Amino acid sequence: MALRTRKILLILFTLFGIALVLIGAQVYSFLTTAVAPAETQLVEVEPGSSFARTALALQNAGVISNAQRFSLLGRWREVTEKIHAGEYFFEQSATPDEILARLVAGDVRKYRLTIPEGFTLKDIARRVEEAEVGSADQFLKLAQNTELARQFDIEGETFEGYLFPETYTFRAGTSFEALLKMMLAQLETRLTPELLEQAGKLNLNRHQLITLASIIEKEAGNKEEMPLISAAFHNRLRIGMPLQADPTVIYGIVDFDGNLTRKHLETPTAYNTYRMRGLPPGPIANPGLAALTAAANPAESKVIFFVSRGDGTHQFSETLAEHNAAVHRFQRRR
Predict the structure, then answer these.
(1) What is the pLDDT of residues 232-286, one digit of tens each?
(2) Which end of the chain lies in a sparser environment, N or C, as judged by fewer CB atoms within 10 Å?
(3) Which residues span the domain enclosing 265?
């Protein structure tokens, strides 16, 4: 009887040992086997979502092979409460530990948004939607919110001119308000005390500096000409001559179709600098650093007029007679 009992115990221990070996082999295989999804997968970890639910989402996306084992791994590593919400891209093969490390580190999807110099709010809104960051209409509605602009100490009615052209990288889920704040903060770093002091010497406050810079940005064919264009505008302001800047007129036209007519130049609007003297009420675009610098540091020149040569540069003149000759040469003949 004792011998039979020993045999039974031996068999049980053997079976138990085999089971442990098999389980160990499965665990080892799970931990060391890198899984590659069939195609790029986007998995969203929602705020407050349980670890088990996240594990199931990863399994359904083909990122891990077993949700239950992944949940046990998370408990063993004591990180089930440490993962970050957000959108995660998975495209390369990775082991469960590597996936877990990404969740704990918060290696979420990041957006890159590039805003070129001279973009208007409408241009930026379209770029936001093209980059799949969000709705163009929703972004524009917020950027044109006067009350919100006031909260950010913007003197204009909207954020026009105050969103600095730059490449921005931010996490998925970043609100439009946070994005506006990010762009505004970039502008503030460029508006140094020295730049604002220099603008003050030319009787330009912060808002006027940005407004003039936006006009220079839209008029200039290249950055090298910006100080001369700035000089022309400063000279016009000094003698009380209208700025006569086509881009300002265009900005004031609702649904501009690309064809600037004499009727447009003769129609009074807040931005028609052919019909009014001085600067328009606010910026017409978002200027870059070169335009801001040029607005505060015009070239030492008596130029008042300039006309496009048709090659991206301008012909500058000090007198109306010189300008008319340049117009005949570069515009009427063409």
Answers:
(1) 999 999 999 999 999 999 999 888 888 888 888 888 899 999 999 999 999 999 9
(2) N
(3) 193-303
